[in-house]
Amino acid sequence: MRDRRRTLLHAAITATATAAAAFTLAPAVHAASADVSEHHDPSEPAAAAPDAGPGPSADEQIGVIRQGALAWNAWRSRHPVVRPDFRGANLTDLDLAGADLRGADLRGADLRGSGLLAADLAGADLSDASLPDVALAGADLTNADLTRADLRGARLTEADLTGALLSRTRLAGANLTRADATTAVLADADLTGANLTGADLDRADLTGAELTDAILTGADLNCHGHYMCELQ
Fold first, then answer.
1. How big is the chain by its Cα radius of gyration, in Å?
2. pTM greater than 0.85
């Protein structure tokens, strides 16, 4: 009988200790969970975002721009980091006035207008664009932004560049015969070897422009910012 009572007492003591331990651990576990929740930033993604995959193809971009400047600019606003790729593209007969073509690769692209009309790029943003050897004879580039663009060897005969921004633009070897660059900004532009025969540079800013070996026969040099402007 005494052994039985001793066994029952031991069992009771063990059960009481187990219950007490459980009561002690439960708040600790709850506190640990609360601590994790408290320090978790819900604005941070739980895992890295999946790869967005390849960007829009050149064919897709050409299809959009052929719808005109408005459609293109809307598309571009949805793809701000995409560098437009129009290498060798047929972009004839398009009205691209005001088009956002920043950083566009237009090497070998055909930008001629319909019939006798040249490409309309008035007010277009072509800053940092790549257009070497492009044919833009007679093109309307009034108030266009061509800052830092690559126009080396470009054919800009009789192009209208009135008010255009051409700061730091690479125009080495370009043909600007009879081009209208009235009030254009050509500060720090590279015009090495460019043909400016008969070009109108009235009130143009040529501050810091490089005109080594440039042809200026018959050009209107009523410009400012460059010593050549003072030699007329």
1. 35
2. no
